[in-house]
Amino acid sequence: MSTDRYERGAAMLAAIDGPAGLAVVDGLAKSFPDFARYIVEFPFGDIYARKGLGLREREIATVAALSALGKATPQLRVHVHAALHVGCTPSEIVEVVMQMAVYAGFPAALNGLAVVREVFVEKDISLPLVSD
Amino acid sequence: MSTDRYERGAAMLAAIDGPAGLAVVDGLAKSFPDFARYIVEFPFGDIYARKGLGLREREIATVAALSALGKATPQLRVHVHAALHVGCTPSEIVEVVMQMAVYAGFPAALNGLAVVREVFVEKDISLPLVSD
Amino acid sequence: MSTDRYERGAAMLAAIDGPAGLAVVDGLAKSFPDFARYIVEFPFGDIYARKGLGLREREIATVAALSALGKATPQLRVHVHAALHVGCTPSEIVEVVMQMAVYAGFPAALNGLAVVREVFVEKDISLPLVSD
Amino acid sequence: MSTDRYERGAAMLAAIDGPAGLAVVDGLAKSFPDFARYIVEFPFGDIYARKGLGLREREIATVAALSALGKATPQLRVHVHAALHVGCTPSEIVEVVMQMAVYAGFPAALNGLAVVREVFVEKDISLPLVSD
Amino acid sequence: MSTDRYERGAAMLAAIDGPAGLAVVDGLAKSFPDFARYIVEFPFGDIYARKGLGLREREIATVAALSALGKATPQLRVHVHAALHVGCTPSEIVEVVMQMAVYAGFPAALNGLAVVREVFVEKDISLPLVSD
Amino acid sequence: MSTDRYERGAAMLAAIDGPAGLAVVDGLAKSFPDFARYIVEFPFGDIYARKGLGLREREIATVAALSALGKATPQLRVHVHAALHVGCTPSEIVEVVMQMAVYAGFPAALNGLAVVREVFVEKDISLPLVSD
């Protein structure tokens, strides 16, 4: 058992996404307990817990990658929530996704913005942003 | 003609990547002048010039996306240079690319790190980083 | 403001997709007005408005790319409509998507054909086509 | 007409996926008869019918590829069924999809496991597996 | 043996790409004879030989898809040659690849244009095109 | 420190790929020691070390996924070696890669077969295989 990594990962997941993140992992663990443990241990216990890059920057990187890849809608939704939770502004999130039009095409940005809009509705963030 | 956008984009490209960025565009313009102009105007004149997200964060997003997509090696090289140029630390860049193992798999991160290493050699940045 | 590009793009969008295209952009503009403007200006005002390739050929290229990429279903639906609107025959559209089995695999073609079928139902185009 | 390939493919499809596979092809044939015929002839009549690799191994390769590509959910569902039908154990299927976290990222594996869970519910296979 | 399809495919391949296309297949056949045969039979004997879409349009679709996918450089080179061979103008080819910036991002278009330039050099087609 | 996972992973890597696998990791560790450690620990110490799927089947899944993704050539080369090392026959490897034409398109299979040929040359495996 890798207790330290799991505990560090669970703390990091709570810091990044609040109780919602742990709830997602608990739901997964009912069907795939080992994979749920790996998610806590490797992405959160090993990677997100590293020094050298702030959590805001980590979430910006993740929102960018998931929008660009364009085939991970449920995970993008989780990380738009997480980006807000660690202090990214709504504008920063919208800007990151819009920027993906340059690197992955307009459909990737459009589909990413549709996810952003869903999360913003849940969080009572009005669109359009004043800055837009 | 859209002079304002072009001039704003050229200034932004110089701010992000120094003279190297403009040299790349000038090379492209010899064969594909309209496309070279679009690159200055849309990505740099429209997107990077927007408020709401800092240049360091924009480069973090771009390095993340290009590593994750894994099929844009020349562009990743340009943006590792650009990330350093706008003030990202070497550690931040390495962390972003390593994090892509989580979202796009270990081969994407490995191939991204190979590009990072090439750029760091050109810039006399020693690896491994002390923080690693 | 880039008024000329916007007006040229809006005219091109109407020529390609009829009133439905402008309605999609207007819906987007309620949440993301700048991105809605970029879509009119760059893809339609800059690219589709260029000489050197006919609109039928542009839509064939777009239907091919979106089917092959396989992660842009809403945009593929729009462009199957647009392809019909600019004069592609139903057979041409089905042939393009089938051909993607060669370059992107059978699942990409199958999922593209499912979108084609939905649009053809809306447009009262009977399947199978006589030519098939 | 390529009768031999079609008959060999139809027999192979029935061997791999039972009557469900042929039903899928029959449904497709109502709209796209030629493409339905190609699917029987090339993937099943040419490729799966070849010697040199067992059917269990062929389904492991297909489940791996479709999970990794991450944009072919309906086809992944068919091939999780097929993998069970040709004798892969539930554990083998779960292991293959989990392994894709290494090569295509955790979202690809997570979305693949969601499909596995749906199929296992239909087949009354309890999760978590005892081996997990 | 499926003699008819092979002969029809070989004739189609010669019509599309001249002797170069058959030479590529012959080279492949030295190592992978069955796969070389499949390439002649399915893409060329079944798909390209179909009615309902002209060869110019088929090559436009293929150049679009291969540029957008961005991971099939050798095949893109073959099909830029083929597009010229079946009568696409240099402008049409450049326009198709540029248009992929919209759907697959600027790096995909840039890397596609680099392939176009290589082929145009071989064919003594001067860049920039006068129309650009 | 997660000593057990590292040792288990290093043993698994040696079992799968012989001394060559460890040499690759040692080379990586000179520039990116933490990432080299993660590769030993997570893919090999956690995933490949699991019960429920044989090593031959794991390599079939990996060769399939890397061929289908088509952007991980160095990693595909390593895993064609590994597949041979754990007992896959040359035919099985060729069949897996050919099968990817169905799911990821002919270019993915062609580019995968080019890697297979390189590795087979190094290992003195003659092509074409007698079974082909």
From TrEMBL, chains A, B, C, D, E, F:
MF (Gene Ontology): peroxiredoxin activity
InterPro entries from the UniProt entry: 4CMD/NDH-1_regulator, AhpD-like, CMD-like
Pfam families: CMD
Start and end residues of each Carboxymuconolactone decarboxylase-like domain: 33-118
Listed PANTHER family: 4-CARBOXYMUCONOLACTONE DECARBOXYLASE FAMILY PROTEIN (PTHR33570), GAMMA-CARBOXYMUCONOLACTONE DECARBOXYLASE (PTHR33570:SF10)
Name of the molecule in the record: Carboxymuconolactone decarboxylase protein
